[in-house]
Write a structure and sequence with these properties.
By secondary structure, this protein is α/β, with parallel strands linked by helices. It has a domain at 1-26 and 110-193: 3-Layer(aba) Sandwich (Rossmann fold). The chain contains nine helices and five strands.
Length: 201
């Protein structure tokens, strides 16, 4: 079984390509953002640590961590953001490695994917068998973010500025998918890369 990390800048189309992979290959796919929500559910060690760090006010009316309140609090304080990441990142990594081990034991899947914009910064390069970079031209990404997410130019500028540059992504990745054009062409690049693995209609 191959353990593959998928990364790339915002708006590159990582989720869309992973939906295609999920449909056509024997795999498990995890999005780090979704895992981050799972590991901070009530009753987890991560939940307790975050409440201790951010205060009881961070717990919303449903008993879960109020994402908007948490975001507001941590982005106003860079040191707090680092402390929250120091709680979340190890919990996400532990969750993923447990799932990876379970998948290896069961032997039902051939590929195990983890997607995140921050895989390189979080040190996943030493964990995965391969790191893939989903590339898209910056103008294409900007257009997608405005059309699909309603982002303003200022918000796009801020996010792009906060992420790794193309050169760093390419230097740290084993395989590049150019997703600047039509989805069909990007999927053909994936199929060529995964031709040794089982195809599912």
């Amino acid at each position: 079984m191959r353990f593959i990390g998928i990364t790339g800048g915002i708006g590159a189309g990582k989720s869309e390509l992973l939906n295609y992979i999920k449909k056509h290959y024997k795999c498990e796919v995890y999005m780090a953002d979704e895992v981050a929500h799972l590991v901070k559910e009530p009753g987890t060690a991560c939940f307790e640590k975050l409440v201790e760090l951010l205060g009881e006010d961070v717990v919303g009316s449903g008993g879960r961590i109020d994402k908007a309140f948490m975001a507001e609090k941590i982005f106003a304080d860079a040191s707090l953001l680092q402390k929250v990441n120091d709680v979340l990142h190890p919990a996400v990594r532990e969750f993923l490695l447990e799932r990876l081990e379970a998948a290896r034991r069961l032997g039902a899947v051939e590929l195990f994917f983890v997607e995140a914009a921050l895989l390189i910064e979080a040190g996943y390069g030493s964990l995965v068998d391969e790191m893939w970079y989903v590339y898209a031209d910056e103008e294409v990404r900007r257009e997608r973010l405005k059309r699909n997410r309603g982002y303003s130019e200022e918000r796009i500028d801020n996010v792009i500025r906060s992420q790794l540059g193309e050169e760093t992504f390419r230097k740290n990745c084993d395989f590049v998918i150019d997703n600047s054009g039509f989805l069909e062409e990007s999927c053909r690049q994936i199929d060529r890369k995964l031709e040794a693995f089982t195809w599912q209609e």
